[in-house]
Design goal:
By secondary structure, the chain is an all-alpha fold. Helix content is 63%, strand content 0%. The chain contains eleven helices and no strands. The radius of gyration is 19 Å and the shape is elongated.
Length: 188
């Protein structure tokens, strides 16, 4: 009986290839910013870069969520999947522009109330959310839909249910306000 062995090396994606995909998705972000966004250490990112380790599935899922790039692209590298994933967005229908306008209005309101320059507030919120600053610009202008997972954190940071109100309606947002106040302490 003869057993055939197939070389899977060509099909296996190593840490260095995952790193290249993650780096491409994050654009010009430093390895430190990538580590922050993916809730991992700079050393882990360095190990991916050299191919000595590879990110676990949770890190790839987080990268997809943070960047908006389809998860399948991170896994396979197939160019047809290098696109913004609209299936995980809070809203991409007719109310999309209202949500973007609400986010932009909240940024302006908070910058004025806290006496901050817009660029400083954007940098702070980007760091808090673990996303590149350019993503926030794209969310605020409506170029990209906002990932649903960011809405509660934005609402807590801005101490407002205005964004939720645009998504789920004013009455539900008022009901959610006590929940957001409870979450505020956990996110600090």
């Amino acid at each position: 009986m003869t057993v055939k062995y197939y070389c899977m090396a060509e099909q296996k994606t190593g840490g260095a290839e995952y790193y290249r995909r993650i780096k491409r998705a994050f654009g010009e972000a430093s390895d430190n910013r990538i580590a922050e966004a993916l809730a991992t250490s700079r050393q882990a990112v360095s190990l991916w870069k050299t191919g000595k380790s590879e990110p676990d599935g949770h890190k790839l899922i987080r990268a997809a969520d943070v960047t908006g790039i389809q998860l399948q692209w991170f896994i396979t590298g197939e160019e047809r999947h290098f696109a913004r994933d609209t299936t995980m967005r809070a809203h991409s229908g007719p109310g999309h522009d209202r949500i973007a306008a609400a986010i932009d209005a909240e940024f302006k309101r908070v910058a004025k109330e806290e006496g901050k320059e817009m660029a400083d507030l954007v940098a702070e919120v980007a760091k808090l959310l673990g996303v590149p600053e350019r993503n926030l610009y794209n969310y605020r202008t409506g170029k990209w839909s906002v990932p649903a997972s960011l809405i509660p954190e934005l609402s807590v940071r801005f101490k407002s249910a205005a964004i939720l109100g645009e998504i789920v309606g004013e009455h539900v947002a008022l009901l959610m306000k006590p929940l957001l106040e409870g979450l505020e302490g956990q996110l600090k």
